Amino acid sequence: MTNYEAAWLFLELADRVEVAGDNPFKAVAYRKAARLLEGLGEPFAEAWAAGRLRDRPGIGEAIHAKIGELVQTGTISALERLRREIPPGVMDMLTLPGVGPRHARNFWKVLGLEDLTALQEAAEQGRLRTVKGLGPKLELAVLRAIAQRDAAPGRQLLGLALPLARDLRESLARQPAVERVEIAGSIRRRAELVGDVDLVVASEAPEEVSDFFVRMPSFREVTAQGPTRVAVVHQGGLPVDLRLVEPAVFAAAWLHLTGSKEHNVRLRQRAKERGWQLNDYGLTGSGFSLPEEEDLYRALGLPFIPPELREDRGEIEAAEKGELPALVEESDLRGDLHVHSEWSDGTASLRELREAAARLGYEYLAVCDHSRSLAVARGLDAERLRAQRREIEALNAEGHPVYLLAGVEVDILGDGRLDLEDEVLAEMDLVVASLHSGFRQEPERLLARAAAALRHPHVDILAHPTGRLLGHRPPYALDVPALIELAVETGTILEVNATPDRLDLCDLHVRRFVSAGGLVAVNTDAHSTEHLVFREYGVATARRGWCRARQVLNTRSLPDLLAFLAREKGRRFSSA
DNA sequence: GCCGTTTTCGGCCCGACTGTTTTCAGTCG
Fold first, then answer.
1. Of A217, A245, A273, which residue is a domain's last?
2. Distance of alpha carbon A319 from the chain centroid
3. What is the pLDDT of residues A142-151, one digit of tens each?
4. Which of A169, A186, A233, A454 sits at a 20 to 30 Å CA gap from A480?
């Protein structure tokens, strides 16, 4: 069982405890344990067996015993009991917006409703209002929620939500009543998937702003409207939350709305320890003027914490000790080490790609078209690769500021061999290896294939290591911690693929890899010149993985990069 | 269920909005 699966069981336990009506703080404790398991840097069973979980904050006697039960029996008896007690349809009710554990429990215990169909019928017949505290509005909300359940988009890619948020921000910024407007929430933290758009506006005339906002044509409905908060739904289905505050308290509101919830909880505890209260309006009782987030953090004895780190994954402890990493920035990138041209399935010529790279201020670009077995992508064989190299050499002879590297994205075949002979790979400036087939193989076989590539002396980079496509395809059943260990051992670069639906490696794996001494490459895998700007999402993922510039290969200058590749090749051959 | 330079018991972050209510519970973030 993976840490992620264990964490998921504790989250389920928390939900069920709430519906069962047990002490709600139990649920809080289980969720905290789930977070810890998810972010644990080693398999939870090993950590438990070695007694390393006992002293972790939030793990007491009872939860420690439950984890032990999970290790030994594969399940948790308290969870099994609640699964028998609460019908599955009742848990489904929690997915309806506006229905939390109390409503679900009332529907079940008071009205005897055990699934969404029964709930829908009862709502249609007006029977929900027979429960004290429930009325006709809730019946309507329930019916609408059930009707829209399948039409709802769920969480959306950062790559879609961030541009939308920026558009909305620009529109608001042009309003005279708006003094300042910023993006907050999970988009500001650059989460890979986001559930809504959060915006904060500073204004002396909030009603003017909210009137303008609800009339914007890009929204399909207004779901809440009060003096300080407006909630709407964008035409694409993404909810948008607008918070309106006085300019003087903007920073506190921005901090609060940026979250994460868990990060905020820690900051508020910290304020409380100092005899103050931190809320959306500032630090009550502190007497400080706090115009910016930096000032709030400073008042709490901390340096500014970048939004990408605000997940309560150790950033507060690191900040306390002055050990926050100086995170890699977009401007640190000197090139892109994985792009495709019209030679395979890309749309741009080498010259066009080079111009686009120049516009980003790059020093180099590695052209890594597909290899021959990927026929759907018009993969290149040795002969076409050599022809492409001749074109690249001719272009490089022009003295252009962007140097092109002749690379290849070589397929790792089903049996672990590479799709091109060693003598061909030896000619390349850069070899990127990747899995494009056999996604559903057994974990052992997948790992063996990946391992063969990592150990191959000609392979420099493993591309999109887990193969996931956000919202479409789960990661391969690959033992990523083992893969990471081997990549560190062999000195192979792992890619942080910046394509918005890949972001692969993901943030947690990046953190694990770089903290173990690994180097990543933030690559766009661009198939057109427009895709080069996807680097923003790759850099965001690296930052969420606590990545410094020196841990990213393509922050190096061209001479340093070439020297590194040559040195690595020499080392690999002497150890092979 | 966890936790302790206020505490081994009594707290646990805090506020906005909605709906159902004449003062608050539930949901959400």
1. A245
2. 22
3. 998 888 776 6
4. A186
